[in-house]
Amino acid sequence: MFRRKNQSHSEQEGEDKQHKVKELRASLGQLSGRSAQYCTDACLKRYLEARNWNVDKSKKMLEETLKWRSSFKPEEIRWHEVATEGETGKVYKANFHDRYGRTVLILRPGMQNTSALDNQMKHLVYLIENAIFNLPEGQEQMAWLIDFTGWSITNNVPVKSARETINILQNHYPERLAVAFLYSPPRIFEAFWKIVKYFMDPKTAQKVKFVYPKNKDSVELMKSYFDMDNLATEFGGTATLNYDHEEFSRQMAQDDVKAAKFWGLDKHAPGVNGYSAAEVAPEPKSIALPATARV
């Protein structure tokens, strides 16, 4: 009897959420082109989840993202445009997944090599999009591993940069981050964290885990998320962290071809930045997103 009630409640909850998805879709009106392609049911669910299934708040959030995507055009960024930012390996996609099949992004703030915030954000957005594009079927989220090796107050990430990163991640990629591990941050970082946390949604802040190599609970936490044979020694694993910029660039170039085809951007003759400066990319017809390219 108890089990039947639980099943009934679960089924009812599922129906209620599906109704919310339909309600949100109807409230958005007729979408076309990339907006229609972006707004899958899975996408709408993420925005609803981020706003506690409040349709009005979710609609506002999603419409802000659609405006941002229309202006920022993350799907049009190509690796050669941001490759200079990635030369030191300050942010890159790992060659392994976590135990839940999530794409893993490795961030090394101590390897910052540029000062232009716009280019830094463009590079980060490119890699977030790429991480999402490479999610395995059935997985919606990614994990971040942040290595503080070489980090100091002198090469500290500016608050403005951290704030913009948080804004983009939590407002335009809601429910994409499963967990972010801050591995062995120096004590001075705690003061910086108090400032940064002020700009974070409580839901996002809860996903940030401070991990210390000599702390037993931290070690067990990492083991629960990662295979130690895959994880680099910088994160307590046994593998060697060796970023090869040329090899990574080749991988990204291959992914760029796939992404361009998916978004319908492969129909244009190459020109400046890969496209003719005079032409505007037409919005592709709405199609179902493949499992490996949900956004």
From TrEMBL:
It comes from the Eukaryota. SUPFAM superfamilies: CRAL/TRIO domain, CRAL/TRIO N-terminal domain. Residues 79-243 form the CRAL-TRIO domain. GO terms for molecular function: phosphatidylinositol transfer activity. Residues 8-21 have a biased composition (Basic and acidic residues). Residues 1-21 are annotated as: Disordered. This is CRAL-TRIO domain-containing protein. It comes from Anisodus tanguticus.
